[in-house]
């Protein structure tokens, strides 16, 4: 039982370090354990030569893993001595003498070897080869099994154990792959400073670029007041209700003003006069639709008058929700509304109805002129007395539209980026095709530019068709700005074509920038550019810039921000800034088109210089 527990600990160690199969479960009482089934075969000594680099990699992973306190010292000489008496019964006398001689030589020659975690039974039968593509060895994954002897030991014992299990020719290949010649050591001394420099560059790059993503929401609590909300009190300001002493309107405005002085995060409430909107509540809705503010609270002109009449007349049809309105446009940014605006507005409504309810109940019950039967006929006029009707002018629906205006757009960048490496070998065929005259450099530049944009044109169509395939509406008519409308489209049946053109222009803006940078900086630095390009576009497009530090205002000029805004306009019939969006995207395409020939020339110059260096050597 104890031995089983020890093997369980060793198997768990191997699983944690990725050198053995994944541990599925263990029994603390019995030491029993279960590991994941490896879909593959045992490594054959006949084919081991083909996997020597992977074998050495696995062996070094074991030797470089963290040593644990439970690891003892594995002594190969003592291990052989322990087994020899039992094996000697079946061995010829000459072989026994030979083994004893080898043991004496090992005891004399090997003193204080380095001790690292070792498998100590590392041979082909304890190496599993996971299934891979036929004929492919570079991507093969090897795992070791049977770690029952895993302890601290001499790493060369594992190498010797494996070598003894291999064919004679493979033994020499193993030692060559594992060992380092003087020439290899010399190159290693040259490469180490370069590796350190690359690691340092990557660390600084990760710190700087990924910080852009984390920092975009760093001051959300401080900037919540940037999410502005109009508070417009029409209560008793319009005839025929001007003779009524207003109660609800002042309560709402006083509460919102008091919140502005709160140290807690709060929305940016702005009190407006009805005259600012020509005494028309519909113009308040228009202001919300036009993105002047994120939401609006309207106290209706007859709010107090209807409440008083309900109590004095015992009106059973009185509806508390007719007192106030909350107006917003969810499709503008559903995440910002769900996370920051609506929770704050709900808290405000609760506070207002609570405070007003206490004041109104006390005042009503003290008025002896109001018959009790009236209150019994209209109890809602006493509690809750007032409420808020919510008007979401443009709901965000269906849910399948989420990728079209958020995370799905990342693939627009990635597809555009990888089209460079995918199509470049094809374009280079024009430059040097045996048996045919090569095109001139200006012709090649033109072919590449036209080819890239033609690819973007078709790929953006494929990308756009995904939204159509998942039944996102594209053929509904538009709706009045001040009306609540579900799934209206800005351009009716032409909405899909406009949506496609936004994606095409956006892919050109994103993709040509990637093409230029790939030609300028080359690989592997292009992958770093992709990370930067994705992070800067995502951080300024998928989160409201009103909540971000002002440093991020450059995001308004970034391509993805304008693709998102234009897509929302088309899909949900929002306030149109399509001219601005198209203008910014066209500017990106134009700038990158101007730079495109220069970047092509730089790439050609670097290629020619590299060929000259190779020829000189």
SSE blueprint:
Elements: H1 2-16, E1 23-26, E2 33-35, E3 40-42, H2 52-63, H3 76-88, H4 93-109, E4 116-118, E5 127-130, E6 142-144, E7 151-153, H5 155-164, H6 168-178, H7 182-215, H8 220-223, E8 228-233, H9 248-260, E9 268-272, H10 281-289, E10 295-299, H11 303-313, E11 324-328, H12 334-366, H13 372-377, E12 388-392, H14 402-405, H15 410-431, H16 441-469, H17 495-521, H18 525-539, H19 559-572, H20 578-616
Parallel strand pairs: 8-9, 8-10, 11-12
Antiparallel strand pairs: 1-2, 3-5, 4-7, 5-6, 10-11
Helix pairs in contact: 3-4, 7-18, 9-12, 15-16, 15-17, 15-18, 16-17, 16-20, 17-18, 17-19, 17-20, 19-20
Keywords:
617 residues, alpha/beta, abc type-2 transporter like fold, 4 domains, five-stranded mixed β-sheet, 8% strand
Q: Describe it for me?
A:
The structure is a single chain. With 617 residues, the protein is an alpha/beta fold. The protein folds into four domains: 36-73 and 115-178, Aminoglycoside 3'-phosphotransferase, Chain: A, domain 2 (Alpha-Beta Complex); 180-215; 220-392, abc type-2 transporter like fold, CATH 3.40.1710; 399-616, no CATH class. The protein has 20 helices and twelve strands. The chain has helices at residues 2-16, 52-63, 76-88, 93-109, 155-164, 168-178, 182-215, 220-223, 248-260, 281-289, 303-313, 334-366, 372-377, 402-405, 410-431, 441-469, 495-521, 525-539, 559-572, 578-616; strands spanning 23-26, 33-35, 40-42, 116-118, 127-130, 142-144, 151-153, 228-233, 268-272, 295-299, 324-328, 388-392. The strands form four sheets. Strands 9-8-10-11-12 form a five-stranded mixed beta sheet, with helices on both faces. It has a three-stranded antiparallel beta sheet with strand order 3-5-6, with helices on one face. A two-stranded antiparallel ribbon has the order 1-2. Strand 1 and strand 2 (33-35) form a beta hairpin. Helix 17 runs antiparallel to helix 18 (525-539). Mean pLDDT is 84; it is low at 183-199.
């Amino acid at each position: 039982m104890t031995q089983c527990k020890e093997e369980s600990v060793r198997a768990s160690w191997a699983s944690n370090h990725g050198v053995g199969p994944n541990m599925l479960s263990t029994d603390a009482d019995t030491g029993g354990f279960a590991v994941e089934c490896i879909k593959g075969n045992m490594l054959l000594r006949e084919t081991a030569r083909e996997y020597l680099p992977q074998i050495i990699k696995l062996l070094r992973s074991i030797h470089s893993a963290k040593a644990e306190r439970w690891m003892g010292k594995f002594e190969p000489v003592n291990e052989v001595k322990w087994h020899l008496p039992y094996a000697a019964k079946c061995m010829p006398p000459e072989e026994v003498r030979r083994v004893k001689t080898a043991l004496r030589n090992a005891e004399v020659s090997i003193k204080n070897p380095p001790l690292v975690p070792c498998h100590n039974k590392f041979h082909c039968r304890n190496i599993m080869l996971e299934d891979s593509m036929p004929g492919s060895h570079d991507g093969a994954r090897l795992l070791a099994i049977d770690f029952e002897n895993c302890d601290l030991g001499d790493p060369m014992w594992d190498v010797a154990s494996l070598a003894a299990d291999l064919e004679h020719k493979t033994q020499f290949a193993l030692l060559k792959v594992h060992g380092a010649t003087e020439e290899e050591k010399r190159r290693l001394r040259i490469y180490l400073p370069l590796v350190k420099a690359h690691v340092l560059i990557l660390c600084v790059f990760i710190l700087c670029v990924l910080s852009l993503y984390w920092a975009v929401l760093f001051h959300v609590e401080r900037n919540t007041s940037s999410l502005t909300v109009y508070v417009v009190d029409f209560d008793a300001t319009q005839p025929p209700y001007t003779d009524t002493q207003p109660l609800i309107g002042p309560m709402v405005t006083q509460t919102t003003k008091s919140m502005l002085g709160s140290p807690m995060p709060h929305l940016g409430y702005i009190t407006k006069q009805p005259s600012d909107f020509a005494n028309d509540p519909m113009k308040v809705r228009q202001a919300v639709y036009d993105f002047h503010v994120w939401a609006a609270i309207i106290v209706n002109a007859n709010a107090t008058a209807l409440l008083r009449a309900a109590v004095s007349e015992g009106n059973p049809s009185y509806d508390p929700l007719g007192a106030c309105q909350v107006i917003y446009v969810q499709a503008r940014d559903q995440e910002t509304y769900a996370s920051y605006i609506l929770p704050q507005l709900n808290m405000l409504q609760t506070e207002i109805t609570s405070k007003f309810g206490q004041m109104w109940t006390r005042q009503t019950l003290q008025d002896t002129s109001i018959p009790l039967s009236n209150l019994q006929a209209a109890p809602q006029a006493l509690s809750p007395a007032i409420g808020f009707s919510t008007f979401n002018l443009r709901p965000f629906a269906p849910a399948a539209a989420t990728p079209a205006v958020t995370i799905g757009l990342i693939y627009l960048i990635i597809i555009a980026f990888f089209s460079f490496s995918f199509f470049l070998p094809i374009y280079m065929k024009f430059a040097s095709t045996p048996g045919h005259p090569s095109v001139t450099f200006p012709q090649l530049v033109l072919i590449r530019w036209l080819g890239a944009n033609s690819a973007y044109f078709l790929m953006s169509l494929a990308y756009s068709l995904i939204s159509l395939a998942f039944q996102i509406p594209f053929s509904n008519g538009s709706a009045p700005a001040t009306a609540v409308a579900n799934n209206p489209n800005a351009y009716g049946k032409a909405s899909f074509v406009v949506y496609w053109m936004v994606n095409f222009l956006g892919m050109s803006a994103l993709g040509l920038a990637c093409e230029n940078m790939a030609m300028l900086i080359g690989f592997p630095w292009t992958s770093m550019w992709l990370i930067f390009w994705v992070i800067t576009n995502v951080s300024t497009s998928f989160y409201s810039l009103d909540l971000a530090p002002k440093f991020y205002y450059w995001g308004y000029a970034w391509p993805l921000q304008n693709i998102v805004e234009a897509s929302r306009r088309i899909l949900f019939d929002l306030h149109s800034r399509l001219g601005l969006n198209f203008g910014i995207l066209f500017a990106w395409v134009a700038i990158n088109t101007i730079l495109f020939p220069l970047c092509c020339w730089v790439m050609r110059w670097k290629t020619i210089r590299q060929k000259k260096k190779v020829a000189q050597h």
